[in-house]
Every structure is written in C-alpha cells, then in structure tokens.
C-alpha cells in the first residue's frame, strides 16, 4: 500500500505468554494514519502471528472487552489511535493490570465480577411493592446521584488503574463499589444492604481517594465520588446504629 | 475487629488530634513567648489535674491513630498481614507517652 511506505513502520511490543510465564515480542507494523490499537492487533494476527490471543467484540467503544495496558496506561484498544500513544514509533501492549492472564493479552475477568457480587452491585428491592415501576422526578437528588454512577460498562480500566487494588487483595475496587452506589440511590431499593456490603473488609473505606479510577474511566464516571458517597452514608448509618 | 471499625477509630482520633494539637501548639507558643522556665512550666502542669488528663488523652489518640495508619501502610506496601507488631507498636507508643505525662503530673 502506498501509505505504508509514507512513514516508518511502528515497532509494537506485545506481551505473549500464559499464566505462568511470558515476554514481550516485537512486531513491525505499517504506520497507517488513523489506525487504532485494535487495528494494529488485527494486522499482527492476520499477517505476522495467527496465534496471537486478544479479546474484542463491538470495535466501537460500547462493550469494554478490549481494555489493555497500552504504553503503560489502561485504555480501550478500539478507541486508542496508534499515532496518539506511540513514542518514537514504539508501542507496548500488555494485558490489563491486576487481572490474571489466560493467554497473551486475554485476561481472566472472573475475580473482577465476583467482587461486584460481594459489593452487592445490583438492585435489591425493599419489598414486594418495590418491584413495580416508581415515579421518580428527573431532578430528584437520588435520581441525580444514581445518574452520575450509571453507564459503567464494566471494562475493568478503573480496576487496572487502582493502586489500592494491587496493594490489597481484599479490596472490592472502584467498578463494583460504583455499581453498589448506583443501586443504593434507587428509591425502591433496600438501601441498607449496599451499605452493609460497603463496610466489609476490603469495602469502600479501603479506598485512599487517589482518584486514578476517575482519571482513566473511558465513560467519564467519577468513581472516587461514588466510593466517597458509600463511605459517608455507611459512616453516618454506623454512628446512628442503623447499619 | 473489622477494618471498618479501625477506619472509624482512625477518623475519630484524627478529629480529636486536630483540637488537641491546636491547644498543644498554643501552649508551646505561650510558654516560649512568656518565656517560662522548666520549673515554671512544671509548677503550672502540676497545679491542675486537667493538664495530665489533657496530655493523657493526647497520647492515647496519637498512639492509636499512628498504629492504625502504619498498619495500613505496612499491609499495602510491605505485605505485613499480621497484627501482632501493631499491638506492640501501640503499647510502646502508649507506654512512652504516658511515661512523659507522668513526668509533668
């Protein structure tokens, strides 16, 4: 192709291996304008290394399955342009931090979603009547708090960016706690269940408010604020003896 | 004791230390401004039981706050997951502090 020759090729170092061991393997990839990291991986798999394992589904930033460590930061491969992250024409692609590796760039997300369960990251109706529709005004404070925390697609970027997740194996992590906070603000919800889950060992109070999660979140969720909300509400409930 | 309870205690002691620390700072400033000799200061602290009580609470709050904070740092940075050394640290800090309070009582 004509544009292949226009600029020098990219050197793309991709982590290859399994749960036990692995190393970076470099590939020379054409430097096409506008191509994404997902395009780069597809090129490598189709042209240079058919055995390369990586995960993707929607290609347009909706599913969250292509999250990877790209030049040191967690990002979506499909929404990251190669030319925007390349340094001296070099790009390093590793599996997502804090996730066990299955093979190459494919990470095991089971422990990540298991923590959503432990954080009670779901709707828990307060009674039989609460399963029906409720009329909630758009400017209701609870509605607004819930709005700020929804739209998370569970890509794991925040979990990979959080140093506390790496330091404390019990910590539930930003995504799970953010989900619990969203559900807590549903007026039909038995709100105490989320607060009880938030005060378990490794719960909301484990967060040091460093804010890496909200800095990297591709859908702009302020997860630090959600966790702070859980801390505040659970602390107030505990002091009132209503936990 | 759950992690949440430790978190709670650390926040409560932090709030206490803020107030106690300000009074302590004021005491230092007024004593050096006066200026008071060591004998003058001892005469004042021994005149009222409030001073040893004040500094006794101060010592307990500081020892507790420091031990919980260092425990978290050691767990996260060094991987020390056992709490026996935290208890030892708390006892040492409390012992040293209360011994100093005894000196002014």
TrEMBL record, chain A:
EC class name: oxidoreductase
Pfam family membership, one: Fer4_8
InterPro entries linked to this entry: 2Fe-2S_ferredoxin-like_sf, 2Fe-2S_ferredoxin-type, 2Fe2S_fd_BS, 4Fe4S_Fe-S-bd, Beta-grasp_dom_sf, Helical_ferredxn, SDH/FRD_Iron-Sulfur, Succ_DH/fum_Rdtase_Fe-S
Domain 4Fe-4S ferredoxin-type per the UniProt entry, residue ranges: 142-174
GO molecular function: 2 iron, 2 sulfur cluster binding; 3 iron, 4 sulfur cluster binding; 4 iron, 4 sulfur cluster binding; electron transfer activity; metal ion binding; succinate dehydrogenase (quinone) activity
GO BP term (any one): tricarboxylic acid cycle
Residue intervals of the 2Fe-2S ferredoxin-type domain: 10-97
Keywords for this protein: 2Fe-2S, 3Fe-4S, 4Fe-4S, Iron, Iron-sulfur, Metal-binding, Oxidoreductase
Pathway linked to the protein: Carbohydrate metabolism; tricarboxylic acid cycle; fumarate from succinate (bacterial route): step 1/1
Name recorded for this polypeptide: Fumarate reductase iron-sulfur subunit
Organism of provenance: Magnetospirillum fulvum (Rhodospirillum fulvum)
Lineage per the UniProt record: Bacteria, Pseudomonadati, Pseudomonadota, Alphaproteobacteria, Rhodospirillales
Automatic annotation (TrEMBL), chain B:
Residues passing through the membrane, by range: 49-72, 84-102
Family matches, as SUPFAM superfamilies: Fumarate reductase respiratory complex transmembrane subunits
GO molecular function, one term: metal ion binding
Matching Pfam families: Sdh_cyt
Keywords: Heme, Iron, Membrane, Metal-binding, Transmembrane, Transmembrane helix
Subcellular location: Membrane
GO CC, any one term: membrane
Cofactor requirement: heme
Purpose of the protein: Membrane-anchoring subunit of succinate dehydrogenase (SDH).
Protein name (Swiss-Prot/TrEMBL): Fumarate reductase subunit C
Naturally occurring in which organism (per UniProt): Magnetospirillum fulvum
């Amino acid at each position: 192709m004509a544009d292949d020759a226009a600029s020098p090729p990219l050197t793309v170092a991709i982590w290859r291996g399994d749960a036990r061991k692995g190393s970076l393997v470099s590939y020379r990839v054409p430097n096409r304008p506008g191509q994404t990291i997902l395009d780069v991986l597809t090129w490598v798999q189709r042209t240079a290394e058919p055995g390369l394992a990586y995960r993707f589904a929607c290609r347009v930033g909706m599913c969250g399955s292509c999250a990877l460590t790209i030049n040191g930061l967690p990002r979506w491969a499909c929404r990251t342009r190669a030319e925007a992250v390349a340094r001296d024409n070099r790009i390093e692609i590793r599996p997502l931090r804090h996730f066990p590796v299955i093979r190459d760039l494919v990470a095991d997300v089971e422990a990540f979603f298991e923590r959503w369960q432990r954080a009670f990251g779901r709707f828990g109706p307060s009674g039989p009547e609460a399963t029906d529709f409720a009329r909630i005004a758009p400017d209701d404070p609870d509605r607004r708090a819930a709005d700020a925390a929804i739209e998370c697609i569970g890509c794991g970027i925040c979990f990979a960016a959080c140093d506390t997740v790496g330091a404390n194996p019990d910590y539930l992590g930003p995504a799970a706690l953010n989900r619990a906070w969203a559900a807590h603000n549903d007026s039909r919800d038995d709100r105490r269940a989320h607060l009880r889950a938030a005060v378990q060992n490794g719960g909301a109070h484990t967060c040091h408010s460093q804010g890496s999660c909200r800095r990297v979140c591709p859908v702009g969720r302020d997860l630090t604020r959600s966790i702070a909300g859980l801390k505040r509400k659970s602390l107030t409930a505990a002091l009132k003896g209503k936990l | 004791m759950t992690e949440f309870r430790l978190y709670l205690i650390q926040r409560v002691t932090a709030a206490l230390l803020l107030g106690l620390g300000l009074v302590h700072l004021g005491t230092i400033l007024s004593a050096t401004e006066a200026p008071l000799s060591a004998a003058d200061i001892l005469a004042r602290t021994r005149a009222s039981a409030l001073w040893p009580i004040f500094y006794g609470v101060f010592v307990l709050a500081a020892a507790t706050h420091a031990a919980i904070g260092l425990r978290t740092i050691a767990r996260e940075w060094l991987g020390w997951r056992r709490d026996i050394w935290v208890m030892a640290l708390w006892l040492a800090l409390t012992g040293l502090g209360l011994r100093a309070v005894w000196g002014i009582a």
